[in-house]
Design a protein that fits this description.
85 residues
């Protein structure tokens, strides 16, 4: 997962985080333990921080299903996944 942060997180650090997403007209989310696996400086007008690549180290099975469902529906809506007919 890609995130932006103003915090300087050391590569290899593990931390708890919550991933929020829209589910129709409501918000949903799940908790994970993530690990920072890469970092790049990121500069925008009026904002200075970092871009991080995160790896999920631990995710509950119920939350894993939410993530797979979210990714599957996103890919289908973008036409990236074709159903076999």
């Amino acid at each position: 997962m890609l995130i932006y942060s103003i915090k300087d997180i050391p590569i290899g650090s593990e931390f708890k985080t919550v991933v929020f997403f829209s589910n129709g007209f409501e918000f949903d989310g799940f908790r994970v333990i993530a690990k920072a696996i890469w970092k790049d400086p990121h500069l925008e007008a009026g904002w200075k921080g970092y871009k991080y690549g995160l790896q999920f180290v631990h995710i509950l099975e119920e939350d894993r299903r939410k993530l797979l469902n979210l990714l599957g529906s996103t890919l289908l809506s973008e036409g990236a996944v074709r159903k076999n007919t």
